[in-house]
């Protein structure tokens, strides 16, 4: 069995500047933001065309000021040439949710043959720095992590209920201590009217994937929703999923207020182009 590893790649860029006019310090604009991979785990599974992927977002109300995007791909172990087309979750649905944690999920048929496979996921985020009445500087970064898993004939089928067993925790990518927000309304380069301020001094934020409650009911609801959206064929077409959901509501899925289907697929080729060299 391969050991789960967590290589972090940080890519930074200075975006633009504006004028800071207001500092927001309320609890609704602060907290520790974290994204965890709940499934798959560093375990062995039978080949499947319906491998679920589940992520948990802690403090999802910080998605908008952090301008967060969560994306992923699957590849053979340490092979960043033969990857699946990168997929990105709909960030707008995350920031508008009152559920905490907020579960993102998808399904793939990529790892349906024997071998060692790997999930690589990215969290793209941004923050700003400045004081009232002074130029406001925006920075965008990206961090990534990987989890390896084995696919072998005769092993147990992928099952989300396995992630609910006592003591099971997800794999964290990083944690960000957001202390407040600044008014970003004057910037045409920021997708929100507020930008996050991240603490740059100790005590540093520490990851806590075990804080996520992933119980049997949540696992069942996600599994039911994936069955509806895929029709049993592993599709990740968000448009088709939305159309089917509107006609065939599943009570279990309706009760899963903390989960939402990803919408759309995006090409992140430019970001991933240097991955083979950087993580080698």
UniProtKB/TrEMBL annotation:
Entry superkingdom: Eukaryota
User: What segments bear the compositional bias annotation Basic and acidic residues?
Assistant: 236-251
Q: Quick check: keyword Signal in the entry? A: yes
One short Pfam family name for this protein?
DUF7136
Report residue spans for region: Disordered. 230-255
Q: Which parts form a coiled-coil structure per UniProt? A: none
Which ranges does the record mark as transmembrane? none
Protein name (Swiss-Prot/TrEMBL): DUF7136 domain-containing protein
Species of provenance: Penicillium brevicompactum
């Amino acid at each position: 069995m391969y050991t789960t590893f967590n290589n972090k790649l940080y890519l930074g860029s200075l975006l633009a500047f504006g004028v800071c006019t207001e500092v927001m310090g309320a609890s609704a604009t602060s907290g520790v933001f974290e994204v965890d991979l709940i499934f798959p785990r560093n375990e062995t599974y039978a080949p499947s065309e319906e491998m679920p992927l589940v992520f948990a977002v802690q403090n999802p109300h910080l998605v908008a000021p952090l301008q967060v995007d969560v994306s992923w791909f699957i590849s053979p172990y340490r092979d960043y040439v033969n990857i699946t087309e990168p997929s990105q979750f709909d960030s707008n649905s995350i920031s508008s949710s009152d559920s905490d944690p907020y579960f993102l999920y998808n399904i793939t048929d990529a790892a349906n043959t024997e071998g060692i496979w790997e999930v690589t996921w990215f969290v793209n985020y941004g923050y700003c720095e400045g004081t009232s009445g002074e130029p406001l500087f925006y920075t965008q970064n990206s961090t990534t992590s990987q989890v390896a898993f084995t696919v072998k004939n005769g092993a147990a089928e992928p099952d989300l209920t396995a992630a609910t067993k006592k003591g099971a925790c997800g794999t964290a990518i990083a944690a960000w201590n957001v202390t407040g927000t600044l008014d970003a309304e004057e910037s045409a380069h920021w997708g929100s009217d507020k930008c996050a301020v991240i603490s740059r001094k100790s005590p540093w934020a520490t990851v806590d994937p075990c804080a996520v409650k992933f119980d049997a009911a949540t696992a069942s609801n996600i599994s039911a929703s994936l069955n509806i959206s895929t029709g049993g064929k592993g599709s990740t077409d968000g448009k088709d999923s939305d159309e089917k959901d509107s006609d065939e509501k599943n009570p279990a899925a309706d009760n899963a207020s903390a989960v939402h289907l990803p919408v759309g697929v995006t090409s992140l080729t430019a970001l991933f182009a240097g991955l083979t060299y950087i993580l080698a």
